[in-house]
Design a protein that fits this description.
This protein is α+β, with helices and mostly antiparallel strands. Helices cover 59% and strands 16% of the residues. The protein folds into two domains: 140 residues, no CATH class; 69 residues, Alpha-Beta Plaits, CATH 3.30.70.240. It is elongated, with a radius of gyration of 26 Å.
Length: 217
């Protein structure tokens, strides 16, 4: 048997052509558990005003779908080559606002790949270690007070009252002020997530026409 024949036989034997139901279920379960842990870390360290439920769910689905794909292509050589060709022409153009969101997506994909390859214990251990190291880094070094811009629009005759209310807030800094014919617009810089959320509640108790909060982190 020649050298090429040995390589060919070794490659072909790696692809059984069948998928064990137990292995498939175990891969999906491992990916699901790992993804739940990832979403918990994401919610604990999120610095925006409110995280979107769709993104959190997408992390779970991303890990499980990736696990399913890896488990499937491991069983068939032709299918694995076809899957590589199909994925090479797919383009995802969804904009990701925060770079950290991209990292969490790669984390979910990595967990799906490991669980799909049958590395169940390694998947759980690796995700746990990454989560612990990230929480330590987030708490000890890289955590900073989140900054927000609050854009307020009100009637011109109420501008002085609104300005007086916000001038008494210690964590609120006036950045721009624009007085027009019938309306006025103020832009304030706010420090702290809880404080920013509390400022949004002022709309119901004042003459403010509209309020928009912009995350600067």
């Amino acid at each position: 048997m020649g050298f090429l024949d040995v390589i060919k036989k070794g490659v072909v034997e790696e692809f059984t052509g069948t998928i064990a139901t137990g292995d498939l279920f175990l891969s999906l379960l491992t990916a699901f558990v790992a993804a739940i842990f990832i979403t918990i870390i994401y919610k604990k360290t999120y610095t925006g005003v409110s995280y979107t439920k769709s993104f959190v769910l997408s992390l779970i689905l991303l890990a499980m779908v990736t696990s399913l794909v890896i488990r499937t292509i491991n069983s068939n050589l032709a299918l694995s080559l076809g899957m590589v060709g199909a994925l090479s022409i797919v383009r995802f153009r969804t904009a990701v606002k925060d770079p950290v969101d991209t990292v969490f997506m790669f984390w979910a994909i990595a967990a799906g790949i490991m669980s799909g390859a049958g590395l169940y214990i390694i998947t759980i251990i690796a995700c746990a270690l990454l989560g612990v190291f990230y929480l330590i880094s987030y708490s000890a070094t890289f955590k900073a007070t989140p900054k927000y811009l609050l854009v307020i629009t009100c009637d011109k005759e109420d501008a002085e009252d609104i300005a007086e209310i916000f001038s008494k807030k210690k964590k609120c800094t006036l950045k721009t002020q624009s007085i027009k014919k019938d309306s006025a617009e103020f832009t304030y810089e706010l420090a702290g997530k809880d404080f920013a959320n509390s400022m949004l509640k002022l709309k119901d108790s004042t003459m403010i026409t509209s309020m928009h909060l912009i995350n600067l982190n």
